[in-house]
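Q: Convert this sequence to structure tokens.
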Amino acid sequence: MNRESWTVETGVGLFLLIGLLCVAYLSFNLGDVRLWGGSDYMVYARFSNVSGLKKKAAVTMAGVEIGRVEDIQLQEGAAVVTLRIYEGVPLEEDVIASIKTMGIIGDKYIAVSAGASEERIPPNGWIRETQPPLDVEELVGKFVFGTMEKKQ
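A:
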């Protein structure tokens, strides 16, 4: 093996290694994968209805993402949503969690309205005030059947 072919093979190998590292980096960042877990904390919220909300949906405050929906379970006839809140984002005790829709027919997400309390929700604590999503089908039904009743 001569010296010239060794340098070409080394260069190609180095190029492939750098390319694989870039692909791995992009995969972890775009997939929102955390290798070491971070210092995120969980909070829980109870909703009467979560229609359309899915795991990994965004949790926002003032339009800025502050976490993700970790899990949704049914407990005692209500939906209990587990929220993973990012490190460094304290939630006041009197925040309000609402299920909103992105756009007209977009995905559901949870919007958290900032509170004014001095007390913070501890890790594994509960958000007490929640608002279920607006049921568009119910509103349309009321409008259609309400106007039909008026005509008769």
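The mean pLDDT is 85.
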